[in-house]
Fold this sequence. Notes:
Elements: H1 2-14, H2 18-31, H3 34-48, H4 53-102, H5 105-108, H6 111-125, H7 127-154, H8 160-202, H9 207-212, H10 216-268, H11 274-315, H12 320-323, E1 337-344, E2 354-361, E3 366-371, H13 377-384, E4 392-397, E5 400-401, H14 407-411, E6 414-417, H15 428-433, H16 442-454, H17 458-462, H18 485-499, E7 503-507, H19 515-528, E8 533-537, E9 549-554, E10 557-562, H20 564-570, H21 573-581
Parallel strand pairs: 3-8, 3-9, 6-7, 7-8
Antiparallel strand pairs: 1-2, 1-4, 4-5, 9-10
Helix pairs in contact: 1-11, 2-4, 2-7, 3-4, 3-11, 4-6, 6-8, 6-11, 7-11, 8-10, 8-11, 10-11, 16-18
Amino acid sequence: MKNIVKLFKRFEEDYRHFNLIIVSLSIIMGILPVINIYAPKLIIENLEANTNTRYIGKIIVAVLLANIILVLLRKVYEAYFTLVFESMTDKLTFELSEKAMKLPIEDTDSKDIQDNLEKAHISVFNIYDLWETLNISTSSFVTGIFALVILVKLNIFLPLLGLGIIFANRYFVNLIKNNEIYYQKKSAGENRVYRYFANFAQDNKYSKDIKIYKGEELILEKSKKYMDRLINTNKDYYTKNGIYGGMMNITSSIGIVVALIYLTYRLTEDTVSLADFTLYFSSIIQLINTVNIVQKNYAQVISVNENMKSYFDFINLPEREIENNKNVDIKLDKLSIRFDNVFFKYPKSKNYILRNCSFEIKDGETVALVGKNGAGKSTIVKLLCKFYDPTDGNIYINDVNIKDIKARDYYKILSPTFQDFRLFPFKISENILAKKEEDISSYDLEKVKDSTKLLGIDKWILSQENGYSTYLTTLFSDTGIEPSGGIGQKIALARSMAHGGRFFIMDEPTSALDPRSEQEIFENMLEISKGQTSLFISHRLSSTKYADRIIVCDDGHIIENGKHADLIHKNGLYKKMFDSQRELYS
């Protein structure tokens, strides 16, 4: 139950006395129903004694008032808890999103981590059920204590009937608990995938391809596949819980029948009055119901506790890029990069993407990295960006192992543009600087304008109604725009330029551009990065003429390294690739 205890503490941090208020209301709501147990006895006794009907009327009024107060308290409880729950749900969901963004990419790429995040989200939305369950259990338990005290007066062994029901239902309680835990584990992955397809179907970025290539049936079939899995999982879960709960109800009903037979016998023997009969019978029903409710809810509480473990486990995942304690001082007047016998395979994969990979990029040098598809080029970029650690070997910047550099400090050195770059649905200036518009200084804005001017998109931006404050996509603004692939790529390049890192990395930076724009971009980038260390990857080998040196990667190995003329003379893979594209740029 330690995870639920942590949750209590978490609620208390944001809402002082929250737990005290909830427990107090639950206890009061457990005491008030006791009058419903006593009232029939008092009414019958007064009717038998021919007491003034005004006294009976007072009892009825007291019962009505107690029940009205009970209803009002429940409304207050629900309103207060709903208010707190909605706020805490938003906060905990935000914390999960914040944590997900801080995790290393190596972790967020993992299916296990993605499933854990889904389970953590589910656990957050189960919190309401938890408090409702605890409220009902606490209230019922308090009422049950009063019923127990009443029954002890009749027969000290009668409460043992409740104990017998506890033992009889123990088997079914364990079955419900295991079913709850199994359901949460099994449904997390299916929920995540089904939710992906639901979002996919509503994402207009895919609408053109879906419509043109008639992909509706494909998407719907795949969605239905996971929907059917979810339905079957839910059907199995609710069917089992229904059967187990039904068996517990049968056991409880048997207990009630046994108690009724015993009390009827005492009534016929005149050892119990009719008034006491109603009191004891109401008490035994309340006690058995309490046992039933507490046992059923115990299984649900255990399930929620297991779910909350997913939340706290995810929140406590190590943020390696922040938690690196070393503070290495790197002098950046010069900057060189060196791969030293680097091997790499992705987590849980047996196949190495890079093997014995060694090369150096000298200070101020512009290097082109080329190779066939799947040769390992983009993996090299991922390792350079510290998205993954090498499986073996080391990467050095100015002879300092990048493992020893805090990622936040290291990222200041880099200015990458990725092959699969993403633009945010924010304003153009916010996209380029990754800052809120109100936090952008005049100096920052000048950097944005300079980079967009060099890339030739400043006039296009200024032609928009809101200039650099124009939103990309219509998610947040009806006047937002959808940039073309080429414009989008230039905005991504502007982001890299405005960042101002000493080491430029460009992974297919001109793949969406025409040859003329490509030439213009490379000439501008060379002008900007003049004297700075740069690495670019391109399938268009015409761009390699801008490089000081060319590194050729094939099947995870560096097989050629040199200037364009030398590699052509060598008559290796580079020459074959170059010759195959010669017609395109002759």
